[in-house]
Every structure is written in structure tokens, then in C-alpha cells.
Amino acid sequence: MRILALDASTEICTVALGGSAGFEERAVSAGQRHSELLLPMIRSLLADAGISLQELDGIAFGAGPGSFTGLRIACGIAQGLALGAGLPLVGVSTLAAMAEVARRGDGRARVIAALDARMHEVYIAAYEHDGARWHERVAPAVIKPEGAPLPPGVGWLGAGGAFAAYPALRLRLAAALADCDAGVTPTASAIGVLALPRFAAGEGVPARDAAPLYVRHRVALTTAERAAGSTL
Predict the structure, then answer these.
(1) Preceding peptide of 65 cis, ω within 30°
(2) Is the predicted pLDDT of residue 109 greater than 90, yes or no?
(3) N or C: which end of the chain has fewer CB within 10 A?
(4) pTM of whole model > 0.85?
């Protein structure tokens, strides 16, 4: 099985091509240029591999949480490519992908993944690996750093930029944490690794059914809500 994977949930724009034998990945710091960079990166990756889109078995994308614009771009591009080539799609949690990055980096089996959600909030989830697969111990949520949910047990790695952006997050989870790595970000190859067994299990969906995982669904109030004193 060979799949294409892509992610635009953070400032890093990343694409990967591969399968069970491994992934060839490319990544660039994109800022706000994901929409300009993703398609050329995909075309270049496919051309260098000498393979067409139609020869793939599926496309995986970082579904979120993360940058709203980046998630829409990644999902939209994945949908367009999949629709044209008749391929199934799998959306992968970016927080789970961060856990996989940590596992592949130094064998971490307990990971609390957290991204800066802005507005003094974090996207956070906790995952534990049993040697074969990841298990979700804290479901993805958006929350104030000082209210972050505590995972069971100790010895967890705090992974992701939220641990650098919000010292209160590390303080809140201090009893559970072994250490932190704020440099962990989702990668397309980690997304591909997590998507492969889902494709093999027939969990791929048609392009029309793919959707981002925002976690936070609202970022602003209407004029009437503000006038009434409502808050998010």
C-alpha cells in the first residue's frame, strides 16, 4: 500500500509519500503560504517518485486541531486530489501525530500533546502506546492551560509548542510530566504511519465525507451576542 499524507495545521507545511516500508517527507516553514506551497510540494514529491496520483491507495491529511485556515486548506486540497483520482481519504488527529513523532524520535510511550490555540487556550490530548498502537487517554479538547485535564499516572512527555507558550500548562501538569519537548510538531510522515492501518481496515471515506477536526467551533461572537454581554 502506498499513500500520500499532508499537513498544514501549524506553520510547517509538510507532505509525505510512502507505505509500510517508510515515508519520503518534505517540510518547509510556510508561515501563511500553505495554499501556495502544498500542491507544488505534492507534485514534486510524486514526480521524483515516478508515480501518479491515480496509482496511490489513499490520501491522509492532518484533520486538526490546529490553525483553522491551515486545516481548511489541507482538507480542501486532499478532497480535490481524492475526488479527481477516485481515492479514499483518512483524516488523522494532529495531536495523535505529535505523539507518534515523539515515539519515533526516542521511543516515548506516554505523550501529552499540546498546541497553542491562541486566546490563552491550548489544544490538548494524551495518548499511551501499548507496543502495538496508541490509546487515547485524554480526548482532544480546547481549554485554558491552568485547567488542562490530568492524565492517569506519571512519566508523561509534554510535547508541543503550548508548553513553551504557556508556563501555566507545565505547572498544571507537573505531577504527571517526566519532561517536555516544545519542539514537537505534527509531520506528514507520522500522519501517514497512523493512517496506514486505517486504510487497511477499510476506514477511508469518500472526498465528500472528509472534514477538519476543529475542536473549537467558534472564535467570535455576533454583534447581537456582544451587545448582550455574551462571552465564548
Answers:
(1) yes
(2) yes
(3) C
(4) yes
